[in-house]
Design a protein that fits this description.
Layout (H helix, E strand, L loop, with lengths): L13 H14 L3 E2 L24 H4 L9 E9 L15 E10 L4 H13 L11 E6 L9 H9 L7 E4 L1 H4 E3 L4 E12 L21 E15 L2 E15 H8 L12 H9 L5 H5 L2 H22 L10 H20 L3 H6 L1 H8 L5 H4 L1 H35 L4 E2 L1 H11 L3 H10 L3 E2 L1 H21 L7 H21 L5 E6 L4 E6 L6 H16 L4 E7 H7 L12 E7 L3 E4 L14 E10 L2 E8 L1
Parallel strand pairs: 1-2, 4-5, 10-11
Antiparallel strand pairs: 2-3, 3-9, 4-7, 6-7, 7-8, 8-9, 12-13, 13-18, 14-15, 15-16, 17-18
Length: 607
């Protein structure tokens, strides 16, 4: 099982490292369990699975795991708390965490022995022992210094000069303010092969220089923090984590995860679609960062959409983060000269790279491509206009001697151009500008309240993006029914949620299969045509004279809002609506039935 002579001389890829890790622990009595979803189930406290231990918290707390007391896995993880740092040598949004677990079985000494054997044995990773450094818990939280781990490392031959005792901030791991926790021992790789920094003998693992790279963390979860107090868990557990991408970089002697098999094929594919050569990109820090961002965000987007509990881009929760990643990547395609469509098409390569380990990606390939293309098209409708608006305003502010973007301007970018506030902050920061966030938050709160009121008037259950898409679809459905069935058709009511629309309309008999197909095709054609949705305030008399249709006119005052979708639809409505029909998606009529005498009902979904 020889993987090479030494780090820097190996050619081990991600699939090989993952399989070696799983095989090693399987041979030592661990059950191989599949990765949990990257989107946590029944846990509203986080948007994504951020660590390997996250899905196993109930079992760390004492519940019996069906696979036994020794487990091993490769867990999909997403962390976006430091998204602005992505593009340097170390930060990623998606990563794989290799982990082995003891649920009340073995503890410190056995765990440390397993790690040492896997890392240094010639049968496994064969890392030179003299390149390994260690940190141990130095005491705190009412827990004494970890002499057991220290002694175990010494017994394995690690010299005292390469072992550091660190405090709570470095060697105490917890799931959060409450929950299972405990001291840990961390394993580092010496990138300089013994060359210390200016601290000399003080240059031990944990030193702030670039000598030591952490590759593995063994957490000894013996406690539960509850009400600010530490109490013993029913059983003592071991939770370890080895970052696959970071370890690959060490084993292959390359400077970053982006130089490993986890990224190189993606980078090479994107470079081929760029207007620059790899040498030009490598020589230009801004271009190198842009390339890494486009690769990282594409990889993460594929895993989030293609997950067994995958989500779509939206304005809420995990979908909001996904939208930000896709749009941020598309923006960084521009300086590289990469067409956004070509960036989206590269998702097929990502699927191919990881489908053996994560078959759900291939199973959901169609959904991945659809959502990426749809979000690209949505963003393309607003990106150039929004950036032009922001650039113009910043130039005017600079001329006036200001370096602060008003909150109202930031809100307009969100409301009119669909920019997430973080996106605007990033663009402004590049120009040396701050944003009046207090004013932005006030304006955003006003907007949310107004949207809720409008949503209630329009039959929407809420003002989420999904419901708003369905609302615009009802206007198209109304117009399509009048086009196919006749001008006698009028809306008799609607009910809209994030999952579907229900539309009641006047018609004396059931629709035929052919009529349903015609209506569906008419709506989809309007969606695919990418028609802007515009609003205009006018008197009720003028609206009727222009041909706008609408019911329940007693709810309007002297002035009415008229929403038009090109020449396809014109209706009196309080909103809210999408900015362009391309944002809606695939429209599907699920059912047509009677609602009451002379009134039919359609249920439809966006799929």
């Amino acid at each position: 099982m020889d993987t090479g002579s030494a780090p820097g001389h190996q050619t081990i890829d991600g699939d090989r490292l993952r399989s070696l890790f799983l095989q090693f622990f399987a041979e030592h009595g661990h059950a191989v369990i599949p990765s949990a979803s990257v989107i946590p189930e029944n846990d509203p406290s986080v948007l994504f699975t951020t660590a390997g231990m996250h899905p196993l918290v109930p079992y760390l707390m004492g519940r019996a795991h069906p696979a036994g007391t020794r487990l091993v896995d490769a867990q999909k993880c997403v962390r976006t708390n430091d998204i602005e740092e992505v593009g340097d040598a170390t930060h990623l949004t998606f990563f794989e965490m290799l982990g082995n677990w003891s649920l009340g079985d073995y503890f410190k000494q056995e765990s440390i022995a397993f790690s040492w054997e896997f890392l240094t044995s010639a049968a496994w990773l064969n890392i030179p022992k003299e390149r390994i450094g260690i940190s141990c818990f130095g005491g705190g939280n009412g827990v004494e210094r970890d002499e057991v781990s220290y002694a175990a490392w010494l017994a394995l031959g690690v010299p005292d000069s390469r072992i550091a005792f660190l405090g709570i901030e470095d060697n105490w791991w917890a799931t959060g303010d409450e929950g299972p926790c405990g001291p840990d021992t961390e394993i580092f790789y010496d990138t300089t092969n013994g060359v210390a920094c200016d601290l000399g003998a003080g240059c031990k693992p944990g030193c702030k220089c670039n000598r030591w790279v952490e590759i593995w963390n063994n957490v000894f979860m013996a406690y539960n923090r509850t009400g600010g107090q530490l109490v013993d868990l029913p059983k003592r557990n071991v939770d370890t984590g080895m970052g696959l991408e970071r370890t690959l970089a060490v084993l292959n002697g390359v400077p970053s995860a982006y130089d490993t098999s986890a990224f190189r094929p993606i980078l090479e594919a994107l470079i081929a679609k760029s207007k620059f050569t790899e040498a030009q990109i490598q020589a230009t820090p801004e271009l190198l960062k842009a390339l890494r961002i486009t690769a990282d965000h594409l990889r993460t987007s594929v895993f989030v959409i293609g997950d067994q509990r995958g989500t779509a881009p939206s304005n809420q929760g995990a979908g909001y983060v996904l939208r930000r990643l896709i749009r941020r990547a598309i923006r960084f395609c521009d300086p590289l000269g990469i067409d956004p469509g070509a960036w989206v098409a590269t998702h097929e390569l990502v699927i191919h790279m990881f489908e053996a380990a994560y078959p759900e990606l291939r199973q959901n390939a169609e959904r991945i491509g659809h959502e990426l293309r749809l979000e690209k098209d949505r963003f393309a409708l607003t990106l150039k206009t929004g950036i032009r608006h922001l650039t113009k305003e910043i130039e005017e502010l600079k001329a006036a001697g200001s370096t602060a973007l008003p909150g109202e301007s930031a809100f307009k970018l969100y409301d009119t151009y669909g920019f997430p506030i973080e996106f605007t902050q990033e663009l402004a920061s590049e120009q040396g500008f701050s944003i009046d966030m207090a004013a932005y938050e006030r304006r955003f709160a006003e907007h949310r309240e107004a949207s809720r009121t409008l949503a209630a008037k329009s039959g929407l259950a809420d003002d989420s993006e999904e419901s708003v898409r369905y609302h615009t679809a009802t206007h198209l459905l109304h117009a399509a029914l009048r086009h196919v069935l006749g001008s006698h058709v009028f809306q008799k009511g609607s009910n809209i949620t994030q999952e579907r629309l229900r539309f009641d309309f006047s018609h004396p008999k059931p629709m035929s299969k052919d009529e349903i197909e015609q209506v569906q095709a008419w709506v989809q054609d309007a969606i695919d045509s990418g028609i802007p949705v515009t609003a205009e305030a006018m008197s009720l008399t003028d609206a009727q004279a222009k041909g706008a249709i609408g019911l329940f006119t007693d709810k309007y005052g002297g002035q009415v809002s008229v929403y038009s979708i090109g020449d396809r639809s014109m209706e009196l409505c309080g909103g809210p609506h999408v900015q362009n029909t391309a944002e809606i998606g695939r429209f599907k009529i699920m059912k047509e039935q009677s609602s009451s005498a002379g009134v039919r009902r359609i249920r439809a979904e966006i799929v």
